[in-house]
């Protein structure tokens, strides 16, 4: 049986009994990143204590001011951590993946925003000598009389805009592109906060060590954004000059876009990953869309498959050959790099709807022994790429299981079955050795959560679960 293209250097030997080197490196990066954040938080807390922060708790006004200083320091560290998490730093992207980074970014973002509000309230209340009635007047005086405070107020408004549009209820009412554009105000908010910190925050510049720490973290954060969110995409697109070659309808409301360019072998994109796409000269060209590869990259062309999600994605149907594409990426850990496979090298792919697009490219492009892959697809009407999947499965000895129909109930990943069986028993019945496999899952959020729960109950360790949700 053919094993193309299994030997492209994406993985270490499947015969090794140890974890792949990439898995070890990525775990080390995650550990170091977490330690760096905690060190930063503990360092600013130590400096606050050293400045007498605990000793100021004797009076109401001093206690409020001290609490405000501490919340401002911790909030500032978390704001910078937010920037770094979404700066597209390659090492973090490879180690965490976009889904996990976005989740951490959201958690840290809400925490830092709450701390900023605590900082504003408690410092103002403290300067008002503990009198709640004097807080509005004191806030007005601080804003107008202290250097950098007007900019800090503008920074806070920017952060309010970002947080309000990040609440789940608000996100459901916004197009992805609109949300993404407004989310960029976070950079403006963080930048506008800098003068206030340097001009009025004595804790930021009270010693050489603190000056180096704060200026260093600011420079690193700004440099990361400029290098990887601005500079690298420009370099990538100048090098590869991507352009559309054709658009093919795959199913009602689903289209595949074929793209070619120069030296695509240097793009370093893996099966299962996604890029963000802008098609120049086409409707919505100013807005970026995240689309996964639906075929394994071969160094000559790329293919993405897009479903009409009502957010401008239907415009891909109108693309013409020769249309230039501007991409950022590749991103995501739904790729061979994430594998924890030991000696068996066995894998399972579980997808639903258009979520099977990255899994189809993994089925084709990932290295695994003949007979070691199981491909499970749930669909409502017609399975995507049925003929392609069947051909790949025949060539590589993969087993395909198709589950037609709507989900039988909320909380279940299965359609209605002729034999009553619970989610976990069904998974174990179809894939008895599921706990020994790397399990790749992609699909709608609720369905994906159900698969995750069933896989965990079936004994799959978290580090062998590789999941990407179609949400933002």
Automatic annotation (TrEMBL):
The keyword Nuclease does not apply. SUPFAM superfamilies: Ferredoxin reductase-like, C-terminal NADP-linked domain, Riboflavin synthase domain-like. InterPro entries: FAD-bd_FR_type, Fe3_Rdtase_TM_dom, FNR_nucleotide-bd, MRET, Riboflavin_synthase-like_b-brl. It is a multi-pass membrane protein. The chain crosses the membrane at residues 28-49, 69-87, 108-128, 148-170, 182-200, 212-236. It is found in: Membrane. Keywords: 2Fe-2S, FAD, Flavoprotein, Iron, Iron-sulfur, Membrane, Metal-binding, Oxidoreductase, Transmembrane, Transmembrane helix. Its cofactor is FAD. Residues 237-337 form the FAD-binding FR-type domain. This is Oxidoreductase. It comes from Nocardioides aromaticivorans.
């Amino acid at each position: 049986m053919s094993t193309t293209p299994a030997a492209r250097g994406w993985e270490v030997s499947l015969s090794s009994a140890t974890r792949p080197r990439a898995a070890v490196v990525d775990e080390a990066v995650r550990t170091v990143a977490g330690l760096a954040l905690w060190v930063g938080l503990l360092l600013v807390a130590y400096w606050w204590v050293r400045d007498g922060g605990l000793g100021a708790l004797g009076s109401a006004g001093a206690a409020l001011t001290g609490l405000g200083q501490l919340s401002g320091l911790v909030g500032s560290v978390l704001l910078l951590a937010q920037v770094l998490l979404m700066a597209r730093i390659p090492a973090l992207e490879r180690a965490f993946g976009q889904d996990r980074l976005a989740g951490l970014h959201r958690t840290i973002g809400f925490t830092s925003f709450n701390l900023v509000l605590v900082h504003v309230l408690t410092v103002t209340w403290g300067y008002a000598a503990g009198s709640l009635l004097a807080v509005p007047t004191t806030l007005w005086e601080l804003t107008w009389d202290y250097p950098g405070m007007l900019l800090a107020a503008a920074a806070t408004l920017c952060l309010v805009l970002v947080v309000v549009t990040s609440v789940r209820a608000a996100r459901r009412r916004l197009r992805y592109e609109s949300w993404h554009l407004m989310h960029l105000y976070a950079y403006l908010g963080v930048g506008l906060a800098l003068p206030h910190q340097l001009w009025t925050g004595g804790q930021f510049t009270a010693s050489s060590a603190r000056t180096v720490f704060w200026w260093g973290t600011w420079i690193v954060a700004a440099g990361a954004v400029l290098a990887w969110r601005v500079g690298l995409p420009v370099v990538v697109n100048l090098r590869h000059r991507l352009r559309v070659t054709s658009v093919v309808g795959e199913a009602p409301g689903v289209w595949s876009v074929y793209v070619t360019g120069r030296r695509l072998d240097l793009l370093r994109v893996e099966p299962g990953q996604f890029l963000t796409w802008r098609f120049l000269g086409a409707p919505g060209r100013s807005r970026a869309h995240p689309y996964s590869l639906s075929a394994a990259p071969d160094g000559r062309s790329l293919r993405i498959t897009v479903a009409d999600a009502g957010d401008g994605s239907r415009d891909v149907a109108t693309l013409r050959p020769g249309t230039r594409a501007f991409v950022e990426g590749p991103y995501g850990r739904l790729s061979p790099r994430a594998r924890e496979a030991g000696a068996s090298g066995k894998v399972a792919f579980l997808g639903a709807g258009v979520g099977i697009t990255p899994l189809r490219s993994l089925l084709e492009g990932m290295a695994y022994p003949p007979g070691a892959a199981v491909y499970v697809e749930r669909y409502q009407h017609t399975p995507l790429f049925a003929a392609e999947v069947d051909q790949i499965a025949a060539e590589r000895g993969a087993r395909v299981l198709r589950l037609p129909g709507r989900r039988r109930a909320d909380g279940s990943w299965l359609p209605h079955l002729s034999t009553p069986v619970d989610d976990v028993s069904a998974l174990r019945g179809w894939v008895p050795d599921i706990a020994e496999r790397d399990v790749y899952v992609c699909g709608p959020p609720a369905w994906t959560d159900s698969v995750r729960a069933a896989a965990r109950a079936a004994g799959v360790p978290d580090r062998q679960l590789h999941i990407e949700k179609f949400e933002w």
